[in-house]
Specification:
Elements: E1 3-8, E2 14-15, E3 21-22, H1 29-38, E4 44-51, E5 65-69, H2 73-86, E6 91-94, E7 101-108, H3 109-120, H4 127-139, E8 158-164, H5 168-175, E9 180-187, H6 192-205, E10 210-220, E11 223-230, E12 233-238, H7 241-253
Helix pairs in contact: 1-7, 2-5, 3-4
């Protein structure tokens, strides 16, 4: 039976206003290489490649490939839910670098100062009450800068309140518990023991089958060192993107 696979790739982009966004340095290069390798597999049914517009795309031209464009973490989550609930998906390679934060609102320092002053002026508050009142204003200000249009380039004291994006990997097995889930974890400049420990906890917490653990300090100059772990511990250690992609292909089609 042919297997349908999803590959997520590239960064998510979270809007601050009509032109500014919060993103990260991911290019989607590894996800594209993984997709190209999977498209060589005869047993592949369909490959859904979910990524933002400017991320790398697979080079392989194939009727088995469907490109799905997203921008934000919410877009990614919706795309995954739609594909998984409407198709028989065997595996998900979740290599997308999902941003942790989105721009909840923008406000000027003057607006925020005015709101806080209005709430605390002439009120006898103790330190705890004062902190709680100020935090309430920050969480739910009565006025914000309109972020549906371009914020002025000459706006002084502009502040952006960040909110947490949804944890995409946590939802994938909720959509279909039978999916073979391969997640990714990137840290920077940590020991191998810490990298494996953090990745193992991520795997357990999200019921993933495998985690590709990467250290940013060991990526570059044609090398991409990674440790792939499963429930038994270290499954494979890789040195390049091609090595990673071939290993993932073996996991999904062994």
């Amino acid at each position: 039976m042919r297997k349908n696979i999803i590959v997520t790739s590239g960064p998510t982009n979270e809007r601050i206003d009509a032109v500014m966004k919060i993103t990260n340095m991911s290019t989607g290069a590894l996800g594209a290489i993984v997709a190209d390798d999977l498209l060589k597999e005869e047993e592949l049914g369909k490959l859904y490649y979910i990524s933002p517009k400017l991320a790398y795309k697979p080079r392989t031209k194939s009727e088995k490939l469907e490109l799905v464009q997203i921008e934000s973490a919410v877009d990614l989550l919706k795309a995954l839910k739609d594909i998984i609930t409407n198709n028989d998906i065997y595996g998900v390679v979740h290599s997308a670098a999902v941003g942790d934060y989105y721009g909840e609102y923008a406000i000027t320092g003057e607006q925020l100062a005015s709101l806080i002053a209005s709430e605390v002026y002439n009120k006898e508050l103790n330190k705890e009450e004062l902190e709680r009142t100020i935090l309430d204003v920050i969480k739910n200000p009565d006025m914000i800068t309109d972020n549906t249009h371009k914020i002025s380039s000459y706006q002084d004291n502009l502040m952006v309140k960040l909110g947490l994006t949804p944890k995409v990997i946590s939802s994938i097995k909720e959509f279909d518990p039978s999916i073979k889930l391969i997640g990714f974890k990137l840290l920077d400049g940590v020991s191998k023991e810490e990298l494996i420990s953090v990745a193992s906890k991520l795997r357990e917490r999200n019921n993933a089958d495998y985690i590709v653990a990467n250290d940013l300090s060991r990526i570059g100059n044609g090398k991409h060192y990674a440790t792939i772990i499963n429930e038994d511990g270290i499954y494979k250690e890789c040195e390049t993107k091609d090595d990673i992609s071939k290993t993932l292909r073996k996991i999904l089609f062994k």
